[in-house]
Amino acid sequence: MDAARTDAVRPGVWVDFDRAEWARLRAATPLTLDDDDLDELRGLNTALDLDEVTDIYLPLSRLLNLYVAATQNLHRVADVFLGGPADKVPFVIGIAGSVAVGKSTTARVLQALLSRWPDHPRVELVTTDGFLKPNRQLQAEGLMDRKGFPESYDQRRLVDFVAAVKSGEDDVDVPVYSHLTYDIQPDADETLRRPDILILEGLNVLQTGMGSSRAFVSDFFDVSIYVDADPDDIRRWYRDRFLTLRRTAFADPRSYFRRYADLDEDEARRVSNDIWDRINGPNLELNIAPTRTRADVILTKGPDHGVDRVQLRKI
User: Fold this and answer.
1) What pTM did the predictor assign?
2) Which residues pair with 132 in a beta bridge?
3) For residue 176, how many other CB atoms are within 10 A of its CB?
4) DSSP H helices in 120-230
5) Is beta strand 190-192 parallel, antiparallel or unpaired with respect to 172-174?
6) In 3-state terms, what secondary structure has residue 158?
7) pLDDT digit string (tens) for 186-218?
8) In terms of CATH, what superfamily is 3-313?
9) Is the pLDDT of residue 116 over 80?
10) Do 126 and 199 contact (CB within 8 A), yes or no?
């Protein structure tokens, strides 16, 4: 076990639950999703069934709902102290983890569940992909092979975006990223309008020290979640996803990765392993995994992509 994993279960700092123990914390939280909903929420090559939702995500949604209520009460107290009218402040959740670990599925499931709680129906999900620098800038800076590393993001814009949402601005623009073209879509910004909850999902959301900004994106989080797994499992999941994309999205003539669509399976495996070993693996080891113990909740997956342990930060 590496140092980061040892720190994550240090007695006194974390409460550690196995799956059965965590599932009991669901209490009476109702299951508001069905199999048809899961078909839309499930990520590529990611195992997700109603048992997973019931055992893992219903207790987590209950915890987050309690956090939202407590945070709103805290803001109301501050408003009373300052003598101003009570103003609803968006609750911000950060979700971090490696490429291919399933954090996007986690984010979508939580968005679906939290939007069904009566007190906060407007739950928006934003990924940090939109805050990557455009390809032309990455190419000029020699960073195309470091896409996803801290230096490949427009950190200042990301921090300004979360700060604007958290401060209650009415309309906040969000840049849009295309996985088909592997680039930012120019002049395609979307507008976020005062959500009750913002879920921000990405590789870099718990990192510090990027760029020259004095603030970090995690400074604006009310709760943060890290989706974890053994690196060997994540590498295998990445390879399996690559092989699936080779037969699907990569075959689109518009795809940036069209050149991979015609690879045979052995060559595709070699290429996916090479990409992992040169880019995604080092990024996980150097930049992503070290942020694990900064999270409030750690969801640890087993080899089958199901969550088998949950750690909850006490202090």
Assistant:
1) 0.92
2) 153
3) 15
4) 135-140, 155-166
5) antiparallel
6) helix
7) 988 999 999 999 999 999 899 876 444 578 999
8) P-loop containing nucleotide triphosphate hydrolases (3.40.50.300)
9) yes
10) yes
